[in-house]
Amino acid sequence: MNAVVIEHVKVSELPEDWRARLHAAANARVTVRIEEEAEPREAAREATKEGAENPLFGMWQDRAEMADVDAYVRKLRAPRF
What we know:
By secondary structure, the protein is α+β, with helices and mostly antiparallel strands. The chain has one domain. The protein is built from three helices and two strands; from the N terminus they run βαβαα. The longest helix has 9 residues, at 69-77. The N and C termini lie far apart (59 Å).
C-alpha cells in the first residue's frame, strides 16, 4: 500500500475541516499521512445494501438447502404437526 507522508506541516496551513478536528494551536506542527483505503470485502458490501442494516442479514444466502425457503420451512415444521 502506498502512502503520502508530509512532515512538519503547520496546523494553520491545513484545510479548515482538518484544523477543526485537530483542536491544536495554529502554530503547532503535525505530520500528515494519506493512505488509500482498502477495498471492503464482498460480504461487507452485501450487508450495506438497502434494507440490510444488520450485518448478519443474508448470512445463509449461499446455502443450498435455502434455495427454496418455503420447502425448507415446511420440512422443519413437519414433525410438529
